[in-house]
């Protein structure tokens, strides 16, 4: 199978309890949307009890409080369900270096192997598809494409935006003949830093 049209992609976004560069952070919300052929084929979303306090800095960004996650499942309780949901897909994230590192850390913590499949970074795709933009952040791309968030800095809202950015990039890369096959697309969206730290 090397046709983009035959592949199933899993758009992933994680919200975390901190943004520390000195210690691992924990997931406090996970969202994922499965997509194929430009359409949506499934969703996975859950608040997650990070088993540590949510720092005020990130709480001010995503709005998730300790109270909201107190009764939420721990990652260990949903890890297998997420693995089942995403099995056989290509993982897509806006900055895979962050999401893959956090996801793999959580998977290892609960005794599961790290993500074994391919991954695509929509920042890399956007840079190749639409060169010269002032910003390749999700906000900048949403403005460029004139798209509206349903809920910014929440996992499903950011997944919805990433999904739209992803398919617009795929269409543009096909149009300018930089991508024809799934192999081409994987190479275009490859984030070497994510692969090194995963």
Oligomer: single chain
Spatial strand order of the main sheet: 3-2-1-4-5
What is the first-to-last residue Cα distance?
25 Å
What's the total helix number? Answer: 9
Strand content: 15-25%
How would you characterize the largest beta sheet? Answer: 5 strands, mixed
Principal-axes shape call: globular
How many beta-strand elements? 5
Structurally, the number of domains stands at: 1
- The chain-level mean pLDDT equals 93
Helix content: 40-55%
What is the H/E order? EEEHHHEHEHHHHH
Task: Tell me the Rg in angstroms.
Answer: 16 Å
Decide which structural class fits the backbone.
alpha/beta
Can you offer a commentary on this structure?
A five-stranded mixed sheet has the order 3-2-1-4-5, with helices on both faces. By secondary structure, the chain is α/β, with parallel strands linked by helices. The chain is globular and about 50 Å long. It has helices at residues 56-62, 66-69, 75-86, 96-109, 122-129, 138-145, 155-175, 182-188, 192-197; strands spanning 9-16, 27-36, 39-47, 90-93, 119-121. The mean pLDDT is 93. It has nine helices and five strands; from the N terminus they run E-E-E-H-H-H-E-H-E-H-H-H-H-H. Helix 6 (138-145) crosses helix 7. The chain has a single domain (4-197), classed as Ribonuclease H-like superfamily/Ribonuclease H (Nucleotidyltransferase, domain 5).
């Amino acid at each position: 199978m090397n046709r983009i049209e035959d592949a199933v992609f899993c758009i992933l976004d994680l919200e975390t309890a901190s943004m520390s560069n000195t210690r691992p952070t924990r997931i406090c919300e996970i969202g994922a949307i499965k997509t194929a052929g430009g359409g949506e084929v499934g969703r996975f979303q859950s608040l997650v009890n990070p088993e540590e306090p949510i720092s005020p800095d990130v709480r001010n960004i995503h709005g998730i409080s300790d109270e909201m996650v107190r009764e939420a499942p721990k990652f260990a309780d949903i890890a297998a369900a997420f693995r089942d949901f995403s099995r056989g897909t290509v993982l897509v994230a806006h900055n895979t270096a962050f999401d893959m590192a956090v996801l793999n850390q959580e998977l290892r913590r609960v005794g599961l192997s790290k993500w074994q499949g391919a991954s695509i970074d929509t920042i890399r795709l956007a840079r190749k598809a639409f060169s010269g933009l002032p910003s390749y952040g999700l906000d900048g791309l949403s403005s460029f494409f004139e798209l509206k968030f349903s809920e910014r800095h929440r996992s499903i809202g950011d997944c919805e935006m990433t999904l739209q950015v992803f398919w617009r990039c795929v269409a543009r890369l096909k149009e300018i003949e930089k991508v024809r096959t799934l192999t081409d697309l994987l190479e275009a969206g490859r984030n070497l830093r994510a692969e090194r730290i995963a």
